[in-house]
Amino acid sequence: MKILLTGANGYIGSRLLPVLLAAGHQVVCMVRDKRRFTEGSDFGDQVQIITGDLLKPETLVGIPNDIAAAYYLVHSMSASEHGFSELEKTSATNFLKALKSGQCQQIIYLTGIVNDAELSKHLSSRLAVEQVLKRSDIPYTILRAAIIIGSGSASFEIIRDLTEKLPVMVAPKWVNTKCQPIGIRDVLRHLNSVLLNHKAINQTFDIGGPDILSYKEMMMQYAEVRHLRRFILSLPLLTPRLSSLWLNLVTSVPYALARSLVDSMKNEVICKENQIGLIPPSDCLPYRKTLELAFEKIEQNSIVSSWKDALNRGYLDTNFMDQVKVPQNGTLEYKVKMPFERNPEEVFQNIWSIGGNRGWYYANWLWNLRGLLDKLMGGVGTRRGRTHNQFLHAGDVIDFWRVLLADEHKKRLLLYAEMKVPGEAWLEFKIVDFHGKYFLSQIATFRPSGLWGRLYWYAMFPFHIFLFNGMAKRITEFKA
Questions:
Q1: N or C: which end of the chain has fewer CB within 10 A?
Q2: Pairing of strands 69-72, 107-112
Q3: Which tens digit of pLDDT belongs to each residue from 384-409?
Q4: If we measure between CA atoms, which residue out of 241, 251, 260 comes closest to residue 75?
């Protein structure tokens, strides 16, 4: 049957796609920008890729009329709070209107558990989307998940950051909130099991694993799996704002996402009366096992998708790939042209491995300091690392940069800055063959925003001379 998959580039969508294909379905992937459909996981003729923006109804005309079922996996916790709920409801409404003229027999929506009387803004928004979908004439299935644990998931990465980095934690009171974590494998099983299943039509299910744990207990179990000794003391004095700043500084999440998470962590996410009967919690993996499987993926460098793949400003910001062509007018540049005599493939592999665990080859302490300052200003910082250690695709993250172009054939890597700067910044690496002599071309481009942008560039210029020349030299010399 033909299945529509929205959010195909997202954390869940990227992993659900091969599951649907393995079951023999035709899958139509709806994305806002085809350039972001990861080439490394492109299934060629097995999928149809269409573009559409749920906030722009006129872009949804490409949805085929013969869709049998549709997965609605579009939401974000990092978008701005201003008008966020209305935008989410508008997206859902437009989605329904686009499907009404077709043959869709089921909409499957993955959301969060919303059993508390007083919900956070984001959980309230998710509940509002549920209500929009339920008012439609199209049959629905709502899966409400507790926090999802798997390699690359936001929840796992936060637990990992906190536990790995802090031997002693003075934590906010939300660490005592109870939740029912579920592994990503079991989430995918649920999503597949309800597809056109008559037992799931017009039903709402809570899904979770067999363990009910506090966030503190989850971190302590993580420490046991990693053979770490950790001590956690909770204080009720930390306000949501201070908790968000603390989470932002210690973990890889930006402030906007940290604030959304903290607001939601006051709510217990435990399965209630609507537990799904198709796959009961007792058949799901226990929390400790989900951790072990996540580390297997990390050690094998086989993380399929990560929450970091989502755009820094949330899913409503769609056009960052338009920056692939670096502007020529109104910009400032610093160019380095570094000759070298070794195998160009070796130098290119150094470029391909930049950031993350490898670092930036020269004066890493300055890069880390810049990341810390970015964190203090509410930015993403450098703790996001890399999506993959060995592979690069357009849309991946490298610390506080976003990959715009990763061209192995032309030996070119183009990055776009997501740190807080008064303007826009690009960083390009390219191997140049000039009459049989090889050069590393490294260009930092900045488009300032007003006077402050220009002052920023000239204030940083001495550091650019020191940093970019040193980095180019080390890239051409480094041997792994």
A1: C
A2: parallel
A3: 778 777 788 877 889 889 888 888 88
A4: 260
What is each CA distance from 103 to 4, 66, 67, 107, 478, in whole angstroms? Answer: 12, 5, 6, 11, 58
Going by C-beta distance under 8 Å and a sequence separation of 6 or more, which residues neighbour residue 306? 11, 151, 152, 153, 157, 387, 397
CB 43 within 8 A of CB 18: yes
Q: Is the pLDDT of residue 41 over 80?
A: no
Contact, 140 vs 202, CB < 8 A? yes
Q: What is the pLDDT of residues 68-120, one digit of tens each?
A: 999 999 875 544 455 567 888 889 999 999 998 888 999 999 998 888 777 77
Contact 149, 180 (CB under 8 A): no
- Tell me, what amino acid is at 422? P
Rounded CA separation 315/368 (Å): 27
**E strands, 90-214, in order:** 107-112, 140-145, 148-149, 168-172, 178-179, 182-183, 203-207, 213-214
What is the structure's pLDDT at 319?
A: 47
Do residues 427 and 458 make contact, with C-beta atoms less than 8 angstroms apart? no
Q: Look at residue 385 and give its three-state secondary structure.
A: coil
| Amino acid at site 287 | Y
* Packing angle, helices 240-250 and 154-165, rounded to 10: 80
Helices 240-250 and 255-265 pack at an angle, to 10 degrees, of 130
Structure tokens at 220: 């302590």
Q: What is the DSSP letter of 115?
A: -
8 A C-beta contact, residue 63 and residue 50: yes
Rounded CA gap, 458 and 9, in Å? 38
Contacting residues for 278 by C-beta, under 8 A, at least 6 apart: 190, 193, 194, 197, 199, 200
DSSP annotation of 421: -
Strands 140-145 and 203-207: parallel
Q: Give the separation between CA 54 and CA 97, rounded to whole angstroms.
A: 10
Q: How many angstroms separate the CA atoms of 473 and 450, rounded?
A: 33
pTM confidence score: 0.70
